[in-house]
Amino acid sequence: MTIEINNESGVEVDEPAILRLATFALDQMHVHPEAELAIVLVDEGAMEQLHVQWMDEPGPTDVLSFPMDELRPGTEDEPTPAGLLGDIVLCPQVAAAQAVTAGHSTLDELLLLTCHGVLHLLGFDHAEPEEHAEMFGIQGRILDAFAQADSQR
Fold first, then answer.
1. 126 labelled binding-site residue
2. What is this structure's pTM?
3. 2-151 falls under which CATH superfamily?
4. Alpha carbon of 116 to those of 46, 65, 88, 91, 153: distances in Å?
């Protein structure tokens, strides 16, 4: 997979961990190894501008996903085709505040948000209760499996 991370936020983050999680999540969802993904970390001002522009909602948010080729999850026998998955935009400052509330590290929050963004790029949503249950169930399984695999590195 081609995953490009661009940190424009001014906050130091563990980019290798975000890269490992994104790669792991895409692999778990059977996305073609030649798919492309961009992850951009921005400050609160830039995130607020994007949030207003694309979601018509005030204030900065934690993560936004911008799908490109509308790829969907594949299967072990038939991975999703190669293509441009899209962009994930993260705001470390918002993630840090949410991490305090959640009782875990900012990195854990950024990993959760990266996984969440990947799932949105693959067509998952959480507007309806059944969609929410499916998406957050998959997200939890990926994060648990990643934590176990990453701890064994």
1. yes
2. 0.96
3. Metalloproteases ("zincins"), catalytic domain (3.40.390.30)
4. 20, 9, 9, 13, 23
